[in-house]
Cyclase family protein (Alteriqipengyuania halimionae), 295 residues
Amino acid sequence: MSLGHDWARRSGVAVSASNLRAGARLLAVAGAIALAGCAAKPPVPAPFALAGGSFVDLTHDADEDGIFWPTAAEFRLEEVAHGETEGGWHYSAYNIFTAEHGGTHLDAPIHFAEGGQATHEVSISRLIGPVFVLDVTEQSAADRDYLVSVDDLRAWEAEHGRLPDGAILLVRTGFSRFWPDKAAYLGTAERGAAAVPKLHFPGLSPELARFLVEERSVGAVGIDTASLDRGQSTDFMAHRILAAANVPGFENVAQLDRLPATGATVIALPMKIRGGSGGPLRIVAHLPGAPIRGR
């Protein structure tokens, strides 16, 4: 039995030469549409598994003790209401006041690149994905102004394999342990423009930033200090190089000592501020396997 005859029989259509030809044409058109539809749909990426394992919060609390750039407005929580209402139920509400760049936060590319992506334009694909931790705690303990180098990354790759394209790289200097002691974390507890030349903490070298963009096509870069550039930087070249390539940055990241060098997944979701140059960031990591203790 022909395909057209079978279609006609099951559809209750009188079997004739003209009906068979019509049925065959209909099936051909339907098949072409189906194939076109399949071709037009992009492949669905496999989701990463969240069953089992554990989460690590890489975010410092947002409060009045948080650390901000010396020239930035600090965090303030203003009470609107707190307590029992006349109706007999509890009600709390607050206004928050904060600079974009303080505490654990996002640097959107526009922060250092004219025409770069603003906060609301940063792709989710750069904020969620496999995370790789580059540990330079020993170097940073020996030198507060340490510049994380290409050699540091190459040494890491010699042990763990090549950093894949699109990777989220987090640099662990160990400075997170000083939070919220401003003098220990920043190098000075002073505020205002006069404090900026007194900042001392590690950061990325311009050569490493350029290597991550041109040789590794990195997706995002974060660090557990107040800036991707070291405290003594005066030209912020690491920021400028990464931002020019629309690579977002995460600063003041916490608890990187809780992450392995490879194997974890990061979810870094900032407040979606339209036109913003950054914003408060809640960043967490998922670790597969057995749960770990603690926060």
Remarks:
- The first helix runs from residue 3 to 11.
- The helical segments are 3-11, 17-40, 137-142, 150-160, 182-186, 206-214, 237-244.
- The mean pLDDT is 87.
- The chain has two domains: 3-40, 54-74+100-287.
